[in-house]
Amino acid sequence: MKKLITYLFFMSVGLFLFGCDKPAPTEFFNDSSEAEYEILSKDINNEYYSNGFDTTGVTQDITGLANIIALSGIKVTGINDQTDRFSFAQTIFFDKSKPILYSDGRLLAYETITPGIIKFDNITARKVLFRIRYRDNGVLRDTLLGKKYVLYSGRHGGMDQFHYRYDSFINFKFHLVPGSDTEFNIPTPEEITGTVNIMGKRAAGNLRALLRWNKVGNKKIIIVIGARLRDRQIIMPLYRVRTKDDGELLMPARFIYKIPLERFDRLVFTFIRRFEHFEQVNDNNDLYISSQSIHSIVVNIP
Asked: How far apart are CA 58 and CA 67, in angstroms?
């Protein structure tokens, strides 16, 4: 279970990109409740789509992304109802003068740079390697884009002393070397806490999922539905749902039965409440800022 919790954390880390990337071709369905369902993964045998971190959008199309600041307060509730908490912050700067290309000359991504010192709440972020995985002519490859800035605190409070504060502000400070300092506060949303009630029976063909959470207002939240492959212990994001932040969503049986349930043993429901905006930093107005509360819940398939 510890391995699953850790895996879900790394999957959740990338979820902020669901709202700002250009994912692979998908299908959309509008439910009568005004919820919009988007299919994220069609081929469960494709290793590219079988890695939860990659399917968050990090490797699908980062050619059009702005520079990024992402803050996340993450909870993961396992099948034993135990909840682990994580805090995560990262900053990524892309160097648009250094493209990375596919073998056929198409643009894959850009190299990254670390041009100064980043602090969140006066805690200096670490510089870590930033790798992506992708397919090129059917071959799974990985490449190093460079480095990014990261702060992380995990299940027992380490490694960094950074803690995500809900319904508040987190201070961001950037010291450009050489250059001037930039500082501003990033707002954080109210913490989201969800519940999942699986109703019906697989044999009867009437499985439904009643999702509830603490509602805040009439803005949208995102719910990502994934499943764990039996043979590889890998969680695949399958659907992304955009719905009103009104506290309840009934996922109809027709969406659950589009999932080949014989291949999976658990479902994962991830609730995301997000603030996002653009900020101008050192005359650069393409800094995308995402601050989000995430709650992932693991359930058995009855």
From this structure: 13
Q: How confident is the model over 7-35, as pLDDT tens digits?
A: 454 455 444 443 443 333 344 455 545 78
DSSP 8-state secondary structure symbol assigned to residue 23: P
The token duo for 72 is 């996340």
DSSP per-residue letters across 124-173: EPEEEEEEEEEEETTEEEEEEEEEEEEEEE-TTS-BS-----TTSEEEEE
pLDDT one-digit tens code per residue, 72-117 = 999 999 888 899 999 999 999 999 899 999 899 988 889 999 999 9
Instruction: Encode burial over 116-136: b for 16+ CB neighbours within 10 A, e otherwise.
Output: bebbbbebebeeeebebebee
Q: What's at 14, amino acid-wise?
A: G
pLDDT score recorded for residue 28: 46
Tokens of 86: 């994580």
Whats the size of the chain, residue-wise?
A: 302
